[in-house]
């Protein structure tokens, strides 16, 4: 639950980073998908990213709002570079192509035995 004191979930910060940095590719790190660690990958250096209000970057905590929340609970996000090669090798799913394939692939007639 987010509020005006910088207390946000990882997902809220992730989407806000994407919104604030439309020129950047910002993806969930495989660590996040494997074990839930707060980690992202980006093709832009951290010093060039626009960070959400009350967030800053340091080497120890990554992107964080430590000391900027009312409750004292804070978020820490590890940031690693996303190499363009890694991004290009990922399988691309194009929903339009899938729909076309489904609509225009001829169906085999039912065979009676």
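^ Assign residues to that structure.
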């Amino acid at each position: 639950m987010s509020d005006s004191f910088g207390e946000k979930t990882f997902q809220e910060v992730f989407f806000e980073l994407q919104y604030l940095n439309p020129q950047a590719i910002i993806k969930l790190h495989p660590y996040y998908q494997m074990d839930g660690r707060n980690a992202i990958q980006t093709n832009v250096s951290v010093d060039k990213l626009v960070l959400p209000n009350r967030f800053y970057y340091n080497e120890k905590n990554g992107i964080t709002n430590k000391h900027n929340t009312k409750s004292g609970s804070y978020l820490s996000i590890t940031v690693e570079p996303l190499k363009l090669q890694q991004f290009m090798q990922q399988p691309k799913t194009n929903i339009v192509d899938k729909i076309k394939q489904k609509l225009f692939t001829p169906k085999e007639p039912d065979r009676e035995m």
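Residues 10-104 form one domain.
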